[in-house]
Amino acid sequence: MFEIIRRIWKTGVVTQQPLVLAAPPRYRGKLIIDQADCSGCGRCESICPTGAIRLQPAPGGHKTGGQKIVVSYGKCVFCGLCSEVCSGGAISQSQDYRMATRQKNELLQYGG
Q1: What is the pLDDT of residues 19-36, one digit of tens each?
Q2: Over the range 64-89, which residues count as b (16 or more CB within 10 Å of their CB) and which as e?
Q3: How far apart are CA 62 and CA 83, in angstroms?
Q4: Residue-level pLDDT at 16
Q5: pLDDT digits over 50-106, tens only?
């Protein structure tokens, strides 16, 4: 028993490199929202299979007729349908995969 513990102690840290250095080329990650290009058509909201995207009334009268895009990453499955149907190019996907958080309210992204 003592011999096993001694070998474990001598081995030290084995894994030191990060598991993933970069996302694959076609990886669909965090959404990029450009509120200025949004026309307020609502196609992104209607096509989202999980209801992760919604349009909220925005103060100040944006070009969207007072609508603001809100994304909930707690519901999003990163399917990419919203970016495909967005005619104005307001929604696109990045390769950002590091989105861990400790607070549930940080999973909401407001288009700005």
Answers
A1: 677 888 888 999 999 988
A2: beebbbbbbbeebeeeebbbeebeee
A3: 20
A4: 66
A5: 999 999 887 765 454 578 899 999 999 999 999 999 988 899 999 988 888 888 888
Distance CA 22, CA 97 (A): 9
Find residue 76's DSSP bridge partners: none
pTM of the model: 0.71
Which tokens in the block code for residue 22? 């970069």
Strand stretches in the chain, DSSP E: 31-33, 53-57, 67-72, 91-93, 108-110
Identity of residue 17 = Q
CATH number (3.30.70.3270, 1.10.10.10, 2.60.40.2250, 3.40.1160.10) of 24-110 reads: 3.30.70.3270
Cα 41 to Cα 88, 89, 90, 99, 110: the distances in Å are 9, 12, 11, 28, 17
